[in-house]
Amino acid sequence: MSIVIYIAVMAGVTYLIRMIPFTAFRKQIKSRFFRSFLYYVPYAVLSAMTVPAIFYSTGNLTTAVIGTAVAIILAYFDMPLIVVALSACAAALAAGFLIR
Fold first, then answer.
1. How far apart are CA 68 and CA 80, in angstroms?
2. 2 Cβ neighbours under 8 A, 6+ residues apart
3. What angle do CA 20, 16, 5 make, to 5 degrees?
4. Measured distance CA(99)–CA(92) in Å, rounded
């Protein structure tokens, strides 16, 4: 029964988080500063969640740094996302085998 309560509470919290901005800001936001601030919030939140996960995903900081370096280099050269992701994973995996 407690799992049902947990799911209900999380559904309520998720609903409130999504509903509050719609009720608080009924008119269009005119402030250029506030609009530009809100424009970058999703990118900042995604970065704040992703970057720590990158460095703790392999369990070894060295392999994570190598994979991240490969991803940054390939992204700098405008490679497709799938190539960047697969190459970074392969580099981290290869580094893990070499370190062991």
1. 16
2. none
3. 170
4. 10
Strand, coil or helix: what is 58? coil
Rounded Cα distance between 11 and 74, Å, is 40
Output the CA angle 77-79-85, nearest 5 degrees: 120
CA gap 100, 97 in Å, rounded: 5
Element (H, E) at 86: helix 81-99
- Check residue 82 and give its pLDDT: 97
DSSP for residue 59: S
Cβ count near 94 (within 10 Å): 14
Tell whether the model's pLDDT for residue 75 goes beyond 80: yes
Q: What is the mean pLDDT of the chain?
A: 91
3-class DSSP state for residue 41?
helix
Q: Which amino acid is at 57?
A: S
Q: What is the pTM of this model?
A: 0.64
Give me the amino acid identity at 42: P
